Amino acid sequence: MLGLGISGLAACRALIASGKSVWAWDDSAAARGTADSAGIPLFDLAGADLASAAALVLSPGIPHTHPHPHPVVARARQAGCPVIGDGELLARARIRAECVGITGTNGKSTTTALIGHILQAAGRRCAVGGNLGTPILALDALDPTSVYVLEMSSYQLELTPNLVFNTALLLNISPDHLGRHGGMEGYIAAKTAIFRDGGPSATAIVGADDAACRRIGRTIAASGRRRVVFISGQTAVPGGVYALDGTLYDDRGGGRQAVLDLAAAKALPGVHNAQNAAAALAAALALGVSHSAAAEAIASFPGLAHRQERIAVIDGVLFVNDSKATNVDAAVRALACYDAIYWIAGGRPKEGGLAGIEPSLAPVRAAFLIGEAEADFAATLAGKVPVQRCGALAQAVAAAARAAWADRRRAERAAQPVVLLSPACASFDQFRSFEHRGDVFRTLVGELQR
């Protein structure tokens, strides 16, 4: 096992519990210390005889192709040792439960959690995890009547060649992680691996709101490999499941049926969440859940932390934590949800920076910029919206709150002002993770209430 983060440790524990001999290693001394304290046997894989190993199980964060493979991965391949991920170990365990897999550039976690919420509310036993929350090999063992609901990143899918998803979802594709996949073509190939195998009885649920996914869906449908259900958050899709004018519809049988007024789903604002709801509904229906049970569960969904999370309303201003928005496409989706936005953005920029943001800036009253992207974002936004360069999140929250409260006091402003953290950047310049960034934001907003 190379990489001893949360998923790596879970894989080690599962393998040891099944009687396997495990060599575990991490380049981080701190991670090795955690593993040693947990009783995981450590062995420097730089000197291991990898030809004698059944497999090298790789943490998904470790590169195995681009920009260049980790040296241990290169040695494993030279020795003929398979390089796999924890999802492939689940496949090798010959599980009997049904598997639902969810991928896409944005919306994976919300859709995964929402599918799990619907199934649990409908009385179906399920285990929810993968790239979201609980690692795959830390999930409970399930019987054939139960369902694994797994969020799968592009990194994980590349390392999972034999896990078959009876119901597989591809929500959307936009440029992300291109350095790890050798460009857009490699990224798309990794995402579409979720549709491997399956057969005509299996379901492919594919977003219809971007051109790349539409092409992929049409290709799968033409091949006959799976039944394809297109989903949309904004457009009628004949034969699919979609949201239109605030209502969720099922049109799989050729005569559309209204399922839910999305105004009842308070934790799912915006067009992007309408697509997430359509995707979750399509998956639930494919798994035999009734329209009424699915609608009731979608309406009661509490949402996820750091994803359009409503933190507080203070003196008429809403504070929203969307720290999970680590790329510009995710930020665009958040900006479409509100009418008077005081936008906190910045961090470690992704490739392309804020390219494509201009059509989404109409509701932005001002931008408050932080982190490594601050100067570049300021240049991109200059002349389009008022900009304040704040450096750090604490300064940005304070400045955005002052501006939003001043807006609220102006009688001519009818829309509720919103202080929105939707960074369009990774967090690693100033924070340990997007969760850490969101937690700090939550704390700072709490301090405003004192």
Automatic annotation (TrEMBL):
Keyword presence, Oxidoreductase: no
UniProt similarity note: Belongs to the MurCDEF family.
A Gene Ontology molecular function term of the record: UDP-N-acetylmuramoylalanine-D-glutamate ligase activity
UniProt-recorded name of the protein: UDP-N-acetylmuramoylalanine--D-glutamate ligase
Catalyzed reaction equations: UDP-N-acetyl-alpha-D-muramoyl-L-alanine + D-glutamate + ATP = UDP-N-acetyl-alpha-D-muramoyl-L-alanyl-D-glutamate + ADP + phosphate + H(+)
Top-level taxon in the UniProt lineage: Bacteria
Record lineage: Bacteria, Pseudomonadati, Pseudomonadota, Alphaproteobacteria, Rhodospirillales
EC code(s) of this entry: 6.3.2.9
Gene Ontology BP terms: cell division; cell wall organization; peptidoglycan biosynthetic process; regulation of cell shape
Annotated metabolic or biological route of this protein: Cell wall biogenesis; peptidoglycan biosynthesis
InterPro entries: Folylpolyglutamate_synth_CS, Mur-like_cat_sf, Mur_ligase_C_dom_sf, Mur_ligase_cen, MurD
Any single Pfam family the record assigns to this protein: Mur_ligase_M
Domain Mur ligase central: from-to ranges: 102-284
Protein function: Cell wall formation. Catalyzes the addition of glutamate to the nucleotide precursor UDP-N-acetylmuramoyl-L-alanine (UMA).
Annotated localization: Cytoplasm
Top-level enzyme category: ligase
